[in-house]
Design brief:
734 residues; alpha+beta; seven-stranded mixed sheet; 17 helices
Length: 734
């Protein structure tokens, strides 16, 4: 039997998805199912003076309208509302809790009716009067009110003095707007009432156990009272890490009415959920004439809400990439009357590295050095934060292989020097870096005598391929065909798992599978050794493997017995093992993934229209479990990077504190016509220190560096440096 790990294996859940058999949170049926529609606040800050639901209640088919003044009890302590990824500081948002308005679009009522259309219509009949208060939603006008937050990166040397003395210096602000996730699947929850007070909650989430614990805290329930299931997720990218307000509202309505209730948010309403915060990134780089760095200074000023302090590491990434004796990093927040931001693919790195890599490109221009040569001159083999070596770092090989595949050596360095007919051609490059994180995960495997194994875990699959890689690892570890492996995920009653995010689930779940499979191997080995005239008699258990449905000696596979015979001798029909895998803490090495991104753009000289015609992304991320789904992840991340730098931007009318383009017609994202050639290169990166399989994770590294590579290519094509994203034709023609 061929090994599955490291091969381009098709998704085991692919057929269910393409045939429609896969069910999502808003598709589960229930007897007597009611539908809820959210009524949103129309002001940015203040209080509800009067909320009249009488006309809505007169609409035929309306069952109830829940408000802060008409609802079941909710927890009143902040701790009950904090989920496992909530910001440490602040008081989480509580839908329908009181009359206070914290942001425009805040849910203030839930109309519940026999069908969704009736609920939606009746919502227009809810009358609300407000007492409005002064508000602020503009980061740039409030920039002076920013407050500093603690960051893990300590200053080294004297960056200010070194910058003053530097022979060549670059300093600039890079402005990255707020962006929304816009997953294909709308946020939805179906709360199914079982008649005895228990609920089964089907929710769009990246962490079913996180949601279950959260709901139990909010509603004062025991874990057995609420079960959360999320078998399939149509995209999330960080927006589902925290429980969103629709799950609270659906559960609240089901408990109030003792009936099953579904709440599906509209696309517009989803813009009231979390988002990537707008950030002003100030970079200052000082260098010697030969290009080696004297100093790095990076300050980020980002949006947060008034009720929670949300921040991520924007500023410390130069510590992993470039040698410099002097550095200083600062992260500040501005409290605004908006909803709390949240994690969005590669939070902190996507924005911070974008600014850093644009600044490095500008420094290369000032030094008259090739951008790739500058990065190689400044290359750091150690994480400078704690002066640590890496478990592995094949970034040099990423540079070399990416540059060769792209044809970087043929680049004319002069801006506006390369053309294709009427279009200006630009070539740019950038570096990417992300963390290689690992979390405790438990897995249960049940092996039956017919050679079938069921693997179960509460982990989610948000479309990244967790079902498939779990099946691959289990098949190899148990010596079974992948067709004999079934995988159950995303049910809060299954063995424990954290939220799926941070690129940690592949490594974490794979090693939990290995742990449970190892327990099964040991038990099968004992049964096989004890059989009469066993070919494995006298063989030590560590020298026995599972292969092709047999229990065999590793060094002599002819000495084997079938799994079925071993279990028959052991008088068992099934073997069930559960294993919690935890990774030992190791502070002796830094753990990161890296990439080198090369981009080509063609810009219409007269119209300013930008096309990204080629991208080469060379990735060093340890061992790739599945080269097919991994390739797909990186391609998708590159597309998202195109959107981040050229398309995506939340437009806020600060007179009202309201998002004006809360739809995917006016909130621009890349479509097929915007996506051309994308070449993904996986650089071999053996790493026996980070974990047993050498896995690092791919979810986020694919986007980091892409926006900067494209922005740098636009400069090379046009000679015009745009530091306020997205880069749109009006900015080029201005």
């Amino acid at each position: 039997m061929n090994a599955y790990i490291g091969t381009p294996t098709s998704r085991v859940d692919g057929r269910a998805k393409v045939t429609g058999a896969a069910k999502y949170a808003g598709e589960f049926a229930a007897d007597g199912l009611l539908h809820g529609f959210v009524v949103e606040a129309a002001i940015a800050r203040g209080r509800i003076a009067r909320l009249d639901t009488s006309e809505a209640l007169k609409v035929k088919g309306v069952v109830d309208v829940l408000t802060h003044a008409h609802r079941p009890p909710l927890a009143d302590k902040d701790e009950a509302w904090k989920d496992e990824v909530a910001p440490e500081k602040g008081s989480p948002f509580r839908p329908l809790y009181d009359d206070r308005i914290k942001f425009n679009g805040q849910p203030i009522a839930l109309v519940v009716a026999e069908d969704w259309e009736t609920a939606k219509f009746a919502a227009t009949r809810v009358r609300v009067e407000y007492e409005q208060e002064a508000f602020a939603t503009n980061l740039e006008s409030e920039r002076g009110k920013a407050s500093k937050v603690d960051q893990p990166h300590k200053p080294r040397g004297d960056a200010a003095a070194a910058l003053t003395r530097a022979a060549v210096r670059h300093e600039a602000d890079y402005v990255i707007p707020s962006e929304h996730h816009n997953p294909m699947e709308l946020y939805a929850t179906t709360a199914v009432w079982d008649g005895s007070g228990r609920l089964t909650v089907y929710d769009k989430t990246q962490g079913v156990q996180n949601v279950q614990k959260f709901l139990c805290g909010v509603f004062g329930k025991k874990p057995d009272d609420i079960r959360v299931i999320s078998p399939y997720v149509g995209g999330a990218f960080g927006s589902g890490l925290r429980p969103q307000h629709q799950v609270v509202l659906a559960t609240l309505a089901a408990l109030a009415l003792k009936r099953s209730v579904r709440v599906v948010l509209t696309r517009q309403q989803m813009y009231g959920l979390g988002y990537r915060p707008m950030t002003i990134e100030r970079l200052a780089l000082g260098a010697k004439p030969d290009g080696t760095l004297d100093a790095v200074s990076h300050e980020a000023i980002a949006v947060t809400s008034r009720y929670e302090d949300f921040s991520r590491n924007d500023t410390g990434w130069a510590e992993q990439l470039y040698k410099s004796p002097n550095s200083h990093y600062s992260h500040k927040l501005v409290d605004l009357d908006v909803s709390t931001p949240c994690d969005m693919r590669a939070p902190g790195a996507a924005t911070g590295v974008c600014a850093l890599e644009c600044a490095m490109d500008e420094l290369s221009v000032a030094l008259k050095l090739d951008p790739l040569e500058l990065r190689l001159k400044c290359y750091s083999d150690r994480d400078q934060t704690e002066d640590l070596p890496y478990t592995s770092k094949q970034l040099r090989e990423c540079y070399a292989r990416g540059a060769e595949a792209f044809g970087w050596s043929r680049r004319n360095p002069a801006p506006r020097s390369m053309r294709d007919g009427k279009e200006l051609v630009g070539w740019g490059m950038a570096t990417g870096v992300w963390e290689a994180l690992q979390m405790p995960v438990a897995v249960r495997i049940v092996l039956t005598a017919n050679g079938h194994a069921e693997v179960s875990c509460a982990a989610s699959d948000i479309g990244t391929g967790t079902y498939t890689i779990v099946a691959q690892v289990a098949a190899d570890a148990l010596g079974l065909p992948i067709e004999n492996i079934s995988v159950k995920l995303a049910d809060s009653s299954l063995p424990q798992a954290p939220v799926e995010g941070g690129s940690w689930m592949a490594a974490s779940s794979a090693h939990a599978v290995l742990g449970a499979a190892e327990e099964i191997r040991r038990e099968l080995a004992r049964y096989a050794k004890a059989m009469p005239a066993s070919p494995l008699a006298g063989v030590d258990v560590p020298d026995i493997i599972l292969l092709d449905g047999t229990v065999a000696k590793a060094a002599d596979r002819s000495r084997s017995v079938s799994i079925a015979d071993a279990m028959r001798h052991g008088q068992v029909e099934r073997i069930e093992k559960e294993k919690l895998n935890e990774f030992p803490e190791d502070k002796s090495h830094a753990r990161n993934t890296h990439s080198a991104v090369f981009a080509e753009v063609k810009v219409d000289e007269e119209l300013g229209v930008i096309r990204v015609t080629r991208v080469v992304s060379a990735i060093a991320a340890g061992r790739i479990l599945n080269t097919k789904t991994g390739h797909s992840q990186i391609m998708g991340s590159v597309v998202w990077g195109i959107g981040m730098v050229l398309h995506e931007e939340i437009l806020m009318d600060h007179r009202f504190g309201r998002i004006m383009n809360a739809n995917i017609a006016e909130y621009h994202i890349p479509v097929n016509a915007d996506v051309h050639d994308i070449d993904v290169i996986f650089v071999d990166e053996p790493d026996d220190r980070i974990n047993r399989l050498g896995i690092k994770g791919l979810g986020e590294i694919g986007i980091v560096g892409v926006p900067a590579a494209i922005a740098n290519a636009v400069y090379h094509a046009t000679g015009k440096r745009i530091r306020r994203f997205p880069i749109t034709l009006d900015k080029l023609l201005d």
